[in-house]
Design a protein that fits this description.
Helix 3 packs antiparallel against helix 6, helix 3 runs parallel beside helix 7 and helix 10 packs across helix 15. This protein has 549 residues and is mainly alpha-helical. The protein has a domain of 241 residues: Serine Threonine Protein Phosphatase 5, Tetratricopeptide repeat, CATH 1.25.40. The strands form 5 sheets. Strands 1-3 form a two-stranded antiparallel sheet. Strands 2-8 form a two-stranded antiparallel sheet. A two-stranded antiparallel ribbon has the order 4-5.
Amino acid sequence: MKRYIKYGVFCLSSVVFAGCNDWLREDSPMLINVGDFFIASEAAIQSVNAAYAPLMWEYNSTYFSEWFIGDIASDDALKGGQNISDMADAYDIENFKTIDNNGLLLDYYRAKYQGIGRANLAIEQISAMEVDGDDMTQDLKDRLIGEAKFLRAYYYFSLVRVFGGVPKVEAPIYSSDGWIQPRASIDEIFGLIVSDLKDAESGLVNKSRYDAADLGRATKGAAQAMLAKVYMYWGDYTASGFAGAQATVDCYGEARTWAEKFLNEQAGEYSLCSKYGDNFTLEGENGPESIFEIQYTDEPTSDYGEGNGFTRGTFTTIMIRSRSTQSENSGWGFNKPTDNLVAEFEVNDPRLSEAVRVPKDSEMSNLAEEIYLGCRNLAVKRTLTVNGSYEELSHDSRSPLNNVVFRLSDFYLMYAELCLKAGDTPAAKTYLEMVRARARGTKDILPEFPGYSVPDYRNGYAMRQLSDTPEDLELAVRHERRVELAMEGHRWFDIVRWGVAKEIMDAYKAQETLEAQAEMSVFVKGKHELFPIPHEELLLGGLSQNSGY
């Protein structure tokens, strides 16, 4: 969906007068009711388009792309930038020094609720629209409500993974009295996400039903795959008692049911790209492997420095490119892959060069600004690197490269985990091998499980020769997720749901440079897996804070 229909701001109000005469009960002609806008299908489409827009937002008072959490909080990346003072909010996240005045987290939190608010409006108003069989058909109505519910679920999933339980808002708020909402439990939020995704799945259509201009909209396959993912997270959180999660349903069973529904019903809709790197190019956008991706475009009215909604391009490309002026179209040097991540890749794994570049001194113009806490590595994905060179951007904020947030190899590895939990090791091996086979291609590399070794964080990252046991198969799947999805913003959320964030971050810290170690705080188990609710939101809603903050 490379085009977004422009939308405006609606003034919503109504007045009700008490009295016995009809004219006293009529609305003032100077006031606009929200329902007055939703009289044709085009209005419904625009309202759903507006609900997609906050997915793209990355800048308000600061930059708040999700990789500042998914990569930088984890062992996969250091903050980078010009120095440790460059983006202090990200530095705090990187080093577990975050407090509740963190501007990055505040902007992240509020952007998600903007999306939720827009989805709520679309759900309420489109549900009330009449079907006329011509302009607004039942299929279109169901699909649009399905898209809005998918988006609401996606925004809440983003919030619950970062903050735990948050206020649960399921309808538009038309009064200032409605802004004060209590925190819901983590289980209540997961319950809403699951309910929304199930509703969405029943109304959405398959990816192949969309015209090219509408690729990127939520699909039936995306809802099915997300249901499997959400149930798995809920099950993992419950298994470890994370943030008080206590699911009363068989989450892993439900996750596998929805995963198999996806595999059976979507077999003709999705496939692994023949070349791994095709997932990260303009030409490969919305390709066969893409389950859901955030759409960006080089849109001429974009600009940066204005806040949410003023660009439809992504800042990520310029932010993570090399700072070296020796590189044409250079960038700001954030999100630097760690040596620990580089060491995770097996010998000759071609995915390493698609994720990380290691520049020589001669390729850097200012070593003091380009080597961050001893790390010189550069991210490659989402930098628009073609034939070893950065493509020119029309503006820093206008990179058109999409953010693929859920792709088929991610799903396959997730399904392998679910099969392991069910004791189905043959199926787990099959889906692990499908991912490794694509990466291997025709080369004599990346042998099938268990014929290789992986770093074992439980033993100081010593190499562990895998054996054909369920325990080692689990280690192999986790290893594969790290290298297959490297620098795509998944790592932090994986190690938290696995319940090993403390163990991994402590082991990683011991391997880091002395410069990096000197900046890191001690990881506190039971605290640092979540981030603090922003202080301004605590004051506005009278919310309780997460433990330890």
